[in-house]
Design a protein that fits this description.
Distance between the termini: 94 Å
Number of strands: 12
Order of helices and strands: HEEEHEHHEHEHHEEHEHEEEH
Largest sheet: 7 strands, mixed
Strand order of the largest sheet: 4-12-11-10-9-8-7
Strand content: 5-15%
Helix content: 25-40%
Shape: globular
Structural class: alpha/beta
Number of helices: 10
Radius of gyration: 28 Å
């Protein structure tokens, strides 16, 4: 009788070898995930479809098709030259050790705000108050108006007093200083309906513990559209969800002192200037000499924004989300934005201090970014309002109106005069 084969042996008695598991590699032998400058962006790793297995994949016809092994990873490997001598084990070890630090990671993760101190152009933090606002200028010229809004002064049209009191318990009625005289009752009623809906949606989002994308669609996006698309701007301003817009080109991303990029953080919304015909022609003329991959007025090649200068960027987070994540994402994104404006601006011109918003669940805060000689400064935070109350939601809408007024008047005039050029 023939000896019984042991489990896992081939007909020749040799033990079957399991295919090694490899991540896909590039021609340089670096894992594709490590080459992505966005490896530290908070995104879920996509899972393979159920038909893909570690030992191969099953096709639609049910045939098991093994996944081919990637080429070996070492310096000197030449797949097109079969006669070339194979490197020794020692040469593979020494070459891989010498290149491991430079090739295996192209991005330096930013996990804490203090990590930004290690950038070639670091970002530092400074508290926001009357003294720093006066010194910084730019959007912080609106500081006193925003402080008044944050204290609840003049944020509700007088024509909505009955409407507000009908929707609130008497003990929650806003103080009289919250009301301001306006001259458009129809517009006021539309504002009241929308603000009430946003407030109610925010309460539902918190109660149900929904995901950030739901907060964005039910609370944040309607609020920014309500203000940016106000008839008084005559179509000159707009808002957009930009969660898919990455920092491009990569050269705009912050660089670590070691030479590695510090990641391409994204934000959630942009309030931007819609160019008229003259402004659009000047933008085309300004960008005519740039490389194709850089022909955008912003720090991204996201199609809808290439010709529309961003005035206010917004990062959103769930309620009580911890850490410095929102500050880091905003600082990284705004740093790239300042760098892009600097590329288009004469060296002698100064960039005005620029606004950004941080929305943590209900609460909305202002931060501001200023380019200085050797670093960027982040000023913050100033609370503008909170959607957990009807009064707080009116405060957010009014604060946004103050900021969009600044963008449409002051920033647009500066941008048209200093950044873009006519043919």
């Amino acid at each position: 009788m023939s000896p019984q084969k042991k489990s896992g042996q081939t007909p020749h008695g040799k033990r079957r070898q399991s295919p090694r598991k490899h991540l896909p590699t590039t021609s340089q032998g670096v894992r594709e995930h490590d080459q992505d400058e966005d490896e530290d962006v908070d995104e879920k790793t996509p899972k393979p479809p159920a038909s893909v297995h570690s030992r191969g994949r099953t096709t639609e016809l049910g045939i098991h098709d093994p996944v081919p092994l990637p080429p070996p990873i070492y310096k000197g490997y030449r797949p097109d030259n079969a006669s070339a001598a194979s490197p020794t084990r020692s040469s593979v070890t020494s070459s891989s050790q010498s290149e491991s630090l430079s090739n295996t990671r192209s991005v330096s993760p930013v996990k804490q705000f203090v990590d930004l101190d290690m950038a070639e152009r670091p970002t530092t933090f400074e508290g926001l108050n009357g003294h720093t606002a006066e010194k910084a200028g730019g959007v912080l010229g609106c500081y006193e108006d925003l402080v008044a809004v944050g204290r609840g002064f003049g944020v509700i049209p007088c024509s909505l007093k009955s409407f507000v009191e009908q929707n609130l318990h008497k003990s929650d009625w806003p103080p009289m200083h919250a009301y301001a005289t306006t001259d458009d009752a129809d517009r006021d009623r539309h504002l009241g309906d929308e603000v009430l809906r946003i407030h109610q949606n925010a309460e539902k989002c918190e109660k149900k513990g929904v995901a950030e994308v739901v907060w964005n669609s039910k609370v944040h996006e309607p609020l920014y559209e309500l203000v940016a698309e106000h008839p008084k701007y005559k179509g000159a301003m707009g808002s957009m969800n930009i969660t898919t817009a990455r920092i491009q080109p990569k050269s705009l991303a912050m660089t670590h002192v070691s030479g590695m990029k510090m990641g391409s953080k994204m934000v959630d919304f942009a309030i931007y200037m819609k160019p008229d015909k003259e402004m659009k022609n000047n933008i085309r003329y300004t960008l005519r000499g740039d490389l194709k991959e850089s022909q955008s007025v912003n720090q991204t090649m996201h199609g809808p924004l290439r010709m529309c200068p961003i005035a206010i960027s917004v990062e959103t987070k769930l309620p009580f989300s911890g850490g410095d994540t929102a500050d880091i994402q905003s600082a990284t994104w705004m740093g790239a934005g300042l760098a892009r404006i600097r590329q288009m601006l004469p060296e002698s011109e100064k960039i005005p201090t620029m606004p950004a918003l941080l929305a943590h669940g209900h609460q909305l805060h202002l931060v501001a970014f200023q380019e200085q000689d050797d670093n960027n400064v982040m000023y913050g935070r100033l609370q503008l309002g909170s959607s957990d109350t009807l009064l707080g939601t009116f405060q957010m809408a009014k604060a946004l109106e103050v900021l969009v007024d600044w963008a449409n008047m002051d920033y647009r005039a500066w941008y048209f005069d200093k950044v873009i050029r006519s043919g």
